[in-house]
Structure formats: structure tokens, C-alpha cells
Amino acid sequence: MAKKLLDFSKLCVHTLTNKSWNLRECIENYSAAGVHGITIWRNVLEGQNLKECKQILDDHNMMVSGLARGGFFPSTEISKRKEAIDDNLLAIEQSAAVGAPVLVLVCGADGKQSLEKSRDQIQEGILKILPQAKAAGVKLAIEPLHPMYAGDRSAINTLAQANDMAEEINSDFLGVAIDVYHLWWDDNLEKEIKRCGKNKNLMAFHICDWNVPTNDFLNDRGLMGDGCINIPKIRGWVEETGFDGFYEVEIFSNKYWAINQNDYLEKIKKAYLNYT
Amino acid sequence: MAKKLLDFSKLCVHTLTNKSWNLRECIENYSAAGVHGITIWRNVLEGQNLKECKQILDDHNMMVSGLARGGFFPSTEISKRKEAIDDNLLAIEQSAAVGAPVLVLVCGADGKQSLEKSRDQIQEGILKILPQAKAAGVKLAIEPLHPMYAGDRSAINTLAQANDMAEEINSDFLGVAIDVYHLWWDDNLEKEIKRCGKNKNLMAFHICDWNVPTNDFLNDRGLMGDGCINIPKIRGWVEETGFDGFYEVEIFSNKYWAINQNDYLEKIKKAYLNYT
Questions:
Q1: Contact A212 B186 (CB under 8 A)
Q2: Structurally, how many domains does chain A consist of?
Q3: Which terminus of chain A has fewer Cβ atoms in its 10 Å neighbourhood, N or C?
Q4: What is the complex's ipTM, to 2 decimals?
Q5: Residue A24: which domain range?
Q6: Cβ–Cβ below 8 Å for A114 and B211
């Protein structure tokens, strides 16, 4: 079990956690609240001048933990697989432009083909974009998604599978992202966290909670403490690997999106200290 | 890949698949449609004379594959754990009364405690009811549930975990139930099916499909062929173990519950021959 968190030096918030804020609003509000870690979702970069974005980030002493998201490689259609490569190359450029050291990959799946086939296409896609990632100094992090997304969002559903792929490709610019929401149920989690730590493949750590009951496949995530995930235990395993990155709050929630976002940010800070 | 199914001799339907029918309606309609396997959900036994139920089943040459369901052992409250034991003993009696050789266990989980603790309580609960199951000649089948139910419905979420528990308890009256809906995503599935087959622990095989996208946590299951599960492949693994039980159609679906149930039964038969 990890030691209690006493300050916000490791706290990072995903911009999509505060969906109604644009990038400038996220930056200004996070910074004013004493939160200096940010993971940028690409929707808030649309139509923006990336140099200006970087300047605003720097002006507010914001540290970018990562960019979300690349991936979605598999498809039965070759044209879509090509489009995905182009989109990932753009995401790598965007990561570099805003100073994101890591691009998180939601790897994708196509229910019209087997999971094995989708995983082959994921590996193929990663190998195609890896040279550009390396050239740009951006690391790629495979994020295993909960098995309930195996039909359409990710054919990589356990940390074991993500570790397997990262180790097989074996590049300093490829690792894994751990999200407690996707992985909390897995009785191999401790073992696999140790494994990715040992192999220097642990690149990001995302937190939120699993509501009991959960009512929506996408947008019913809980704030830390709302649900049943033992986050301090998992954080302890992550810290034991020597991981020294941010603890990233990534919550998609119709409930929390509907409240005042500054009040919500204060709730996040409180939950971060008490239930993370 | 399994050989194509050519007749309905192995087809069994769960009464909850046709939720609006009472037990007599299920029996009469299944039998008239040439379906002679049935798994009885306990809701249709409420207020019924079980001897009469058995007589109606016999009169229509129905073979009962199983009773659904016992389980729900874990709770942080000792009184609820005791209630669960009583309810499971009743379910065993009901199974024996209607001639169900197997009682399916949806094992339960309590989000207020760890999955490990819930699993300990599941094991404890099974050990408590096993003597009565044996005395009644009813086998208990641990059904691993999809990880999306780990918060509130089952702390046993992989076939590996179910196999572990069945092997540890090691009784001729305890085994596992395989439902493709819960397990299709697991890359250890083939290995674990072989394992439970080898240990004579494979007691039931449930089929349906995973819709892409899936919109409801409980009642958006697909009819075979609607979704992304390669059922013939999994059926092949099951058959390779020597399993000779029924292939049980268990579909909770707001969509299908809303249509004419006799038409639906014909759709089930067609899907059974074409996509199972």
C-alpha cells in the first residue's frame, strides 16, 4: 500500500476530464488550482496554433505528461489502416509540438475480424510509426483497455498483452500505459506491473474509479473514492517499480461533466489526496 | 473449428431468453418447435408446484440442462452471507425437483471489499453447500463472468480462476460453466477449456453473441451471428474436450424480448444452425 499523498506535485489532469473547457481554460484553471501536470486530448488542439499552445503551457509552468491519443490501427479495410498511420504520424507531430513526451495509444479493434488479426495489425501499425516517434523524441505507450472494449476499441485487453507486444518490439520509444479503470480486476496485475517496471516500459499511470454499479460503457467513470478500485494498492505497485511520472486523472463522466468545473477540480484534488 | 450443426438435438434454450413466457409456455413452445433442451431460471418456478413442473417437462420430453442460478455468496455483512447459503440450498432442492443435473453459480462480488476477499467467501460458500448438492445429486458449476461484472456480480472473471477454484475444492460435484459472452476476449481461453475438459470439470456451455457496439451492461446480448464472437471456434475447443452436453442459448436482450417470441424462437433455431 502506497504512502499517503501530501501535495499535488504528481497530480496531472486529462483535459477530457473537464470536457467543456478549451485548452486555455484547462491550463489557466489547473495552474490557478496548483495543478501543473496536464495530459492533452487532441480535440482541444483542433484549429489551434501549436506554438501558441506551447507558449501558454510554458507561461503557466504546465508540464505535459502525455498526448491522448493515437492508435486505432486495425481494420478489415486497408484504406482505413493507412488513414490510421497518417493520423498517428500527425499525433506524433502534435506531441512534439506541445512538448508531450508520451503519446498514448488506444490500439483499436475491428469486430469483423479476430482479436489475433487485430493485434497483428496493431503491431504492424506501431512498427510503421516508431521511426517517426523516435525521430521526434516521442515515446509511444500501449494502453490496454478493459475487455468490455474488445469488440471495437482495443484488442489489447490485459497488461500481459501490452507487455508482450512492447517486449517483442523492444524499443526505448515503446512502452505501456496503466489505467486502473481498465486493469483493476486482473489478478495478474501486480505481476505485470513489476514486469513492465523491470523492463523500463512503464510510461504512464492513469487513475479514476469503477462505479458500482456502472451504467454506461464510456461515460460513467468514478472519481477516486467513488467506487471499488483499491487505487493506493495499485499505486504502491507502480511506485515500487521506480516509476516517477505523474498520476493522471482521466475521468469520463456525464455526472461530473454536468457540474461546475472549478468545483469539480477541487473535488478531484481532495479525492487525489484521500483516495489515491 | 467445429463441424456445422445439422439438427437441434443439442439445442437448449434458457427460459430467460424468452422472458415473457412462463415455464409452461416455454416448455410448450420449445417442444412444439423441436427444441428439447431447457435451462430453467428460478423466476419461472416462483409459486409453482415443482412436481407438476416436472410432470409437464416429462410430458413434453424436455431435458433439463440446468437451473439458473445460485451463487452470490460474498458480502461484507455476515447475515447476507448466511441468507445466500440458505438460498443456495433452496436452489439445490429446486434443481433436484425439476431434474436439473447442474446448478449454475453466478458467484457474486461485493465492491466494498477486495476481489480476493470475495473469492474467499465464494469458496467458503461453495464448501458449505457442497454436501447437500452431493446428497441431492446436483452438480454445481462456477460460471466466470465478464470482468465488467467484477464490481458487483462476480469476483471470478476468467476461466482460469474458475478452474483454480474447482480444482482446489476437487469434488465430482463441482465444475465450471463456460459462456462465450463472458470469456470470448480471453487469450487463455483455449488453454483453459482444455484444462477443465481434462479435469472433467466442464459442465455447461452457454452461447450468444457480443454486439458491436454493446449499449447496455446487462440486456444487450446478441443472437449468434449478430456480433463478433467466433462461436464455432470456441465450440470446437469445447467439443475437443469430449463435452457432450447441450449448447445453451442464453440471451438477455431488450431488443429480442420486444418481438414476437415464437418468431424469435425460429430466429434462434436459424442462428443456431448457421452461426454456432
A1: no
A2: 1
A3: N
A4: 0.96
A5: 11-275
A6: no
A161–chain B nearest CA distance, Å: 9
| pLDDT tens track for A76-131 | 999 999 999 999 999 999 999 999 999 999 999 999 999 999 999 999 999 999 99
Q: Is the pTM of this model over 0.90?
A: yes
Q: How far apart are CA A73 and CA A81, in angstroms?
A: 6
Residue A151 at interface with chain B, using a CB cutoff of 8 Å: yes
Tell me what the mean pLDDT of segment A20-36 comes to.
98
Using a CB–CB cutoff of 8 Å, tell me whether A46 touches chain B. no
**What CATH number is given to the structural domain containing A31?**
3.20.20.150
The shortest CB-CB distance from B114 to any of A152, A210, A230 is to: A230
DSSP annotation of A3? P
Give the HSE-up count for residue A147: Cα atoms under 13 Å, Cβ half-sphere. Answer: 22
Q: How confident is the model at residue A160 (pLDDT cuts 50, 70, 90)?
A: very high
CA-to-CA dists, residue A125 to A50, A120, A265, B152, angstroms: 25, 9, 36, 37
Instruction: Note whether residue B4 is domain-resident.
Output: no
CA atoms within 13 A on the CB side of B158: 20
Residues B128-148: tens digit of each pLDDT: 999 999 999 999 999 999 999
Determine contact: A186 vs chain B, CB below 8 A: yes
Residue among B115, B146, B152 minimizing CB distance to A148? B146
B162 part of a folded domain: yes
Tell me how crowded residue A232 is: count the other CB atoms within 10 A of its CB. Answer: 16
Nearest to A217 among B114, B187, B214 (CB): B214
Give the closest-approach CA distance of B92 to chain A in angstroms.
Answer: 28
Taking phi over 0 as left and psi of -120 to 50 as alpha, with beta for the rest, A225 belongs to: left
